[in-house]
Amino acid sequence: MKREAREIKIGNKIIGEGKPTFIIAEAGVNHNGRLDLALQLVDVAADAGADAIKFQTFKAEQVVTRSVEMAEYQKKNMDKTESQIKMLKNLEFNEKWYPKVIKRCQKRGIIFFSTPHGGFASVDLLQKIGVPAFKFGSGDLTNLPVLKYAAKFDKPIILGTGMATLKEAKDAIKIIKSAKNNKIIMLHCTTNYPCSSDEVNLKAMQTMMKKLDVIIGYSDHTLGVQVPIMAATLGAQVIEKHLTLDNNMHGPDHKASADPEVFKKMVYGIHKVKIILGNSEKKPMLSEMKIKFNIRKSLVALNNIKKGEVFSYKNIGIKRPGIGLPPKYLFKILGKKSKRNLKTDTLIKKNDFV
After folding, report:
1. b/e map 29-61, b = 16+ CB within 10 Å
2. Which of 34, 231, 286, 309 has a CA 20 to 30 Å removed from the CA of 170?
3. In Å, how far are 118, 215, 219 from 19, measured between CA atoms?
C-alpha cells in the first residue's frame, strides 16, 4: 500500500515526512502520586528538548477490577505483589493538578497531553481540559468503542500497538476513520518493561509503514538510547520514551525509564538523525569542493618529454592535483605524439597531443 503524504499538527508542532521527529516524554505514572514530582518531570522533559510530555488520566476503579493481579513486570520492578487496583490508586493524576502542570508546560514551551486510561470518563475529562491530542496505550488498541468515542472530537489520536497483530492495528484505524477522523499515528512497540533487544523487532515498524496508511512512530521500552535512535533513522516520525527522575524510585515504570541524562542523550541523537541522513541527492559537499582539486589526480609527465615523442606508460603518469586532464584521458593520449616539450611533473593539456 502506498501511504498518503500527510501531516498532523499537535500544538505548535507539525508531524510528517521531512519534519523533525516528534519526541514525547512519557511521564506516565512516574510522578508517584505527587504534584511536585510531576512538575519536576515537566522541567526535565523541557530541559532535554522533548516536544511533549504525557501523563496518564484515570481513576483506578475505572481501569481494573479488584481481583486483577499486577503484571509480571510490575511485580519484578516493584519487588512486591499486590492488586493492580491498589497499586494504581497510589498513581492517579489528581484532577486538581491539571491547571498547575499545564501552566508549567506552557511556561517551559512543551506540549501537555495525557492518556485517557480510564475509558470514556477520562476522554471526557481530557476533552474538557483541552488537550491537543489523545494518546492511547497498547492496552486500549482493541478498545474500539472508546477509540471511536474519542475520534469524534476530531483530535489527533496516537495509539500504541504493543501485543497487537497487524490486523488488530488495521481494525483500530478503521474504527477511528469511521468517525471521520484521519489524524492517526500508530506507534510500534513491545509491551514489556524493560524490553529486551531480541523483542524490539523494528522491521515490524517498517511493515507498518508499508501496510498502514497512517503516520508511524515508535514507543520505546528498552534501556538506553540505541533503539529509539535506530527507529528514528528507519523513519519513525514520532518517538515516545518513558522518563523518570531517578531509576531507583519506587514504582512500576521507573526501572524501565530513561533518567534525565539518558533522555537528553536520546533527544540529541534523534535530532542528529535528520542532519546525518541529509537528502537523497548524491553530490559533493561544500567542504569537499574546497579540497576536491587537491585530492583528485591529473595526467602528468613522468619525465622530460620532447616534442614529437610518443606518449606511453613510461612517460605519462597520474598524480595530484586534479586541475589538469582527468585520468580517463589516458586512454586517448596513449600512442599520440606530444606537440611541445614537457618538463617532469607538467600537467598535460588537451592541446598537448595530436
Report:
1. bbbbeeeebbbbbbbbbbebbbbbbbbbbbbbe
2. 231
3. 32, 12, 18
| pLDDT, average across residues 313-331 | 97
From the CB of residue 75, how many other CB atoms can be counted at a distance below 10 Å?
15
Counting every residue written for the chain, the total comes to 354
How much of the chain is in helix, strand and coil states, percent to nearest 5? 40, 20, 40
Could you give the strand order of the β-sheet that contains 157-160, starting from the edge strand earlier in sequence?
111-116, 52-57, 22-28, 238-242, 215-220, 184-188, 157-160, 134-136
Q: Is the pLDDT of residue 2 over 60?
A: no
Rg (CA), the chain: 30
The pLDDT of residue 328 is 97
Residue with grid cell 477520562, as numbered in its chain: 122
| Residue whose C-alpha is closest to residue 138's, from 119, 117, 161 | 161
Contact 115, 56 (CB under 8 A): yes
* Residue 320 cell numbers, joined: 595530484
How far, in Å, CA of 12 to CA of 51, rounded? 9
According to the model, what pLDDT value does residue 111 have? Answer: 98
Which residues 6+ apart lie within 8 Å of 330 measured at CB?
A: 299, 316, 318
Does pLDDT of 200 surpass 90?
yes
